[in-house]
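ok trying again, last paste got cut off:
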Amino acid sequence: MTKFINFICNEQHFALSIDGVEKILLYDNPTIIPDTSDYISGFQSYNEAPLILIDMKKRLFKEKLQPNEQSKVIVTNWKGNKIGLIVEQITTVREYPQIDTDVSENENAKTAYLVGTFQENAVITLHIDVEKLFTSEGEQEIVGLIEKQRS
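nice, full thing came through this time. structure:
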């Protein structure tokens, strides 16, 4: 059994392995980065450094998240760096059976980040692998922004 952080995005339930999560932050209006993909919300200060924020609603459903008092930022490890995932609401931390995320039949599929489902009663929760959340172009863009903010 592995612990997962469960969150809601666009009225859908998602689970993210807690292993890669560093911290949960309150959402704060980010510093906007011009000319970036629409799911990149900007930078938020974290440990005295800029943290790139990803609007999960925009990334997954092409709709901009309207932040409220329940919106949170999940600081997670991604490709050896830290990024912040903005979610509408964190619901629980719970245990589910571990799913092997190293094996994927189609690594290049748009939904390669969806690695499984968990069901409890009538609620289906989608398991996300953060490492596979972006296309190769999206990865290059985010890595480039991280490298620029380090300079």
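cool. The first strand starts at residue 2 and ends at 9. The chain is about 15% helix and 45% strand.
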